Amino acid sequence: MKVLVTGGAGFIGSHTVVELLSEQHETLILDNYRNSSPEAVRRVRELSNGRVTAQEADILDTQNLSCIFAEFQPDAVIHFAGLKAVGESTMNPLLYYRQNIEGAISLLEAMDRNGCSDIVFSSSATVYGEPDYLPLDEAHPLRPANPYGKTKYFIEEMLRDWCAADKHKSAIALRYFNPVGAHASGRIGEDPNGIPNNLMPFISQVAVGKRERLKIFGNDYDTHDGTGVRDYIHVVDLARAHVAAVNALVRIDGFEPVNLGTGQGYSVLDVLHAFEKASGRTIAHAFAPRRPGDVAASYADPTRARQLLGWKAELGLDEMCISSWNWQRQNPDGYAGS
After folding, report:
1. Is the pLDDT of residue 31 over 80?
2. Of 16, 143, 144, 222, which residue is the least packed, with the fewest Cβ within 10 Å?
3. What class has domain 2-182+233-261?
4. Which residues pair with 232 in a beta bridge?
């Protein structure tokens, strides 16, 4: 199958491309490198014996996008491209609505013009907002609490309507929980711009000496150790779920939302201690007050992923931490250090 991957140079995108190529899918990466690096593409080529092509492009450039579709003629699209920082989305919501929502419209219009009717969308568990119950299943009410989450929700609704208008169209929205880890080779991994927004890369940078200490927001939650609990999923498991979703598109009509998580919650301190074990280093940390909007716990019910995609997470917290440390110690400055 020919698969176009928008945002394919990013953290999850690059790992997904490696897995697509291992399944013999012909793959084209499309990326504007705003939150990624061409070095990631070079390393994907290295890991896949050069069997991937890439084009620098922005999905908001409709004319260029149409030319790319007309030339490549993809059978399916995996859509990662978009902005993804919750805090930034709160400070600059219009940027997120323009880039994420208008970008999705531009992409779907290009698909329509070129007869491509299958898409896997990179959504997020942020569409759920404050949990009414745990574990979170796909029937849980959707009420995202920030502009980033709202863009994911609005794009899901757009895809639902896009599919409803044509019975031959298919869309799977993969609602991620907390992606972490890296490729076993240490050649590709998470390379955040500036100060990391997520827990694992921050811990990794403390371990390698780039950051002084980890600030833990809240140690008085109603959890087993007082710190927030989340469902962390290894990025390689996540990448394999995208391949499973692409393969499932041929037997699915309409719109399908699917949670991607392990179903197991780990606290901030659980992750910190597991990383200390993996790295052999002590992670300096300090507690701070809770952040507005943070919840005590959030973790997935992954049943639907098993039923619809035939997929389940295989890699545990130890593997997540070992691979994250392997990536960070080989690449202390990320791709910029190459």
Report:
1. yes
2. 222
3. alpha beta
4. 178
- pLDDT, tens digit, 9 for 90 and up, residues 85-121: 888 999 999 999 999 999 999 999 999 999 999 999 9
Eight-class DSSP state of 334: G
User: How confident is the model at residue 294, as a pLDDT?
Assistant: 85
- DSSP string of 185-205? TSSS----SSS-SSHHHHHHH
Six token digits for residue 237 = 């498991």
Structure tokens that stand for 6 in this block = 């928008």
User: Which pLDDT value is given to residue 179?
Assistant: 97
Nearest of 172, 162, 170, 188 to residue 244 by alpha carbon: 172
Q: In the predicted model, what is the mean pLDDT of the chain?
A: 96
d(CA 269, CA 72): 47
Q: Tokens 């260029």 identify what position?
A: 64
In the chain, what are the domain boundaries?
A: 2-182+233-261
Cβ contact 172:117 at 8 Å: no
Read off the pLDDT band of 68 (50, 70, 90).
very high
175 neighbors 259 (Cβ within 8 angstroms) = yes
Q: Which of 80, 97, 106, 199 is nearest to 148 (CA)?
A: 97
| Per-residue tokens: 168 | 């031959």
DSSP secondary structure code for residue 127 in this structure: G
Catalytic site residue from 96, 97, 128, 148: 148
SS3 61: coil
Comparing CA positions, the residue from 200, 216, 218 lying closest to residue 276 is: 200
What is the DSSP code (8-state) at residue 251?
G
- Vertex 156: Cα angle to 155 and 160 (nearest 5): 115
User: What SS3 class is residue 44?
Assistant: helix
Nearest CA to 320 among 208, 197, 183?
183
128 is catalytic: no
In this predicted structure, what is the pLDDT of residue 197? 84
Pair 290, 251: CB distance under 8 Å = no
Strand-strand pairing, 118-124 and 26-31? unpaired
